[in-house]
Task: structure prediction
Amino acid sequence: MRVETSLPIGDLREVGEVAARLEASGYDTITTEETRHDPFLPLAVAAVDTTTVGLATGVAIASSRSPMVAARLGWDLQKASNGRFELGLGTQVEGDEGPVGAPAPAPPPRLEEYVWAVREIWQTWAEAQPLALDGEPCRFEPMTPSSTPDPLDVPPPRISIAADGPGSVRVAGRVADGVRLHPFCTRDYVEASVLPLLEAGLAAAGRDRSSFTIAGGGFVCTGPDDEAVAEAMDRVRYRIGCWGSTRAFWPVLAQHDLVELGERLSHLSESGGWDEMAALIDDDTVRLFAAVGRHDQIVDAIAERFGGISDCVGLGSGPGSGTALDVPPDLLSDIRAT
Result:
């Protein structure tokens, strides 16, 4: 099991030091999200201040930049990191538009074309061939030598896709190197609804699961003592309430006959009752979405909650496990051994 964490990106002046400390702690990958800040700039800083840890956008919104822009950013980050960058792409969830301000989410077929375009651009750069793409979602005329970057000394970046619906799961299986599951998932939902679609996508492309990475799909609530675990559960309780109020996430609730809970949460969101949502999420519901336990319990809890369905979990990167630097390195090693 690989372990990743998110990189605090509010102040670029602090990114390099924090990235180096996360690498020294033993994390496999550092990720950034496209929320309040650009997800690529911090990784550029981290790339030159680290040497071994993986770097990934988790994720960048595809519809907010053209395939050419994403290709250039990915190419440069792959070069700066000496082959450690992963381009994570996603769309905006309907009803959860966030701060990006893109005109509309890219539907899965368009996202598939987007990935194809990025890969075509990379291939022409790697082979020093003229670039000419004519199709959706982009059209590029041949590039001059002065606008073509130098070839990489390493393979192009891997591409992962955020699974925010059935279509994107199938697209990930067909064209991506990995999928990033939303934290608002339960084990039963992933097994019943996500994995069959993913396997169908892989089969349609004649691809093998062994070379494909599944990341995330839930929370981890942990801490050194019971009080810290309880606080972590309360933070996750709030997140479950917020996401559960959005209809796009109700298929997960339906897996457990909890649609009525989603309707109650939705009514609270419409009336501005965000702070009241957590009270509707009991401990049993939290445990559907999260691995829960003290530091001396969490390895077994992660194995039970994520084992066999996910190749990578996040610690210290969400509401459930404190800060990434609070997680003991020995615990990271034990989780990686599961």
Observations:
- The longest strand covers residues 85-90.
